[in-house]
Amino acid sequence: MELIDSITVSDIVDDFVPVSVNGHAIEEAEILQEMQYHAADSIEAAHQKAASALVVKELLLQRAKELELSAEILTGESQEEALIRTLIAQEVQQPIPDDEACERYFLANQNKFTTPVLVAASHILLGADPQDQHAREFAAQQAETLIAELVKNPERFADLAKQYSDCPSKEVNGELGQLDKGQTVAEFERQVFKMEEGLALHPVESRYGYHIVRLDKRVEGKPLLYHMVADRIATYLKDQVYRRSINQYISLLAGQASIEGLDIQSADSPLMQ
């Protein structure tokens, strides 16, 4: 996190109110170290997230100490992580959603449960380095020109691919074949999977340059039956309710604690990640 790395503790330590949990001080240096794990638009926001995370950790460790818990340390765990895991397992009930709840969720979200959309596409890649603005502008203009030509003469796609494309697919007329999600870079995929069959009238930009895309075939996803996704739904609902239960538990601990320098209840994200 470059924004934080370039700032020393002494530069900003005096800018924030000291944070403590039941009289235990959270050292500012510890908060600054934690900030690297919390992406944010400003130092203040990153500091808030980091301080919240450390306050939650301290609340849980204090509770574990109060209960005199001991924990078996698993491979890759620290002693603190083992104690928190053991505390959560003991104190937070893990709900199991019943069939009725799972089926209600399925009926309310049937559009989420389909087979994947499949597409077959061809493209002409006009390559341009992301750092070369001149090359990017030239490639974009050239793509618009070639699209205009293909609108008039669609049968020329293979010839133009062989002549202009910077992708090895030019050897097979620009054909990419059938594409599943995850096979191509995200910025290309996001646009191509929304297309209708035929030539895209605007170039598709990616980190590699500009693509002239022709969607050769599109097969929409088919609805799945409930029994095909029941286990997936149960796992999802179990995880969602469990996360809420953990957050409620931490909120309860926070409500019973004396926390100085931070309003943990006003955090803009779940208390427990």
Describe this structure in words.
With about 270 residues, the chain is of the alpha+beta class. The protein is about 45% helix and about 15% strand. It has ten helices and eight strands. Strands 3, 4, 5, 6 and 7 form a five-stranded antiparallel beta sheet that branches. Strands 2-1-8 form a three-stranded antiparallel beta sheet. Helix 3 crosses helix 4, helix 4 (about 45-65) packs across helix 5 and helix 6 (about 100-110) packs across helix 10 (about 225-255).
> Spans of 5+ residues with little confidence (pLDDT < 50)?
1-7, 266-273
Element-level helix/strand string: HHEEHHHHEHHEHEEEHE
- Report the helical percentage: 40-55%
Indicate the mean pLDDT.
Answer: 90
Please render the helix and strand layout as text.
Blueprint: H1 2-5, H2 9-12, E1 19-21, E2 24-26, H3 28-34, H4 43-66, H5 79-91, H6 99-108, E3 118-127, H7 133-152, H8 157-164, E4 175-179, H9 186-192, E5 198-199, E6 204-206, E7 209-219, H10 226-256, E8 259-260
Antiparallel strand pairs: 1-2, 1-8, 3-4, 3-7, 5-7, 6-7
Helix pairs in contact: 3-4, 4-5, 6-10
Brief rundown of the structure:
This protein is an alpha+beta fold. It has helices at residues 2-5, 9-12, 28-34, 43-66, 79-91, 99-108, 133-152, 157-164, 186-192, 226-256; strands at residues 19-21, 24-26, 118-127, 175-179, 198-199, 204-206, 209-219, 259-260.
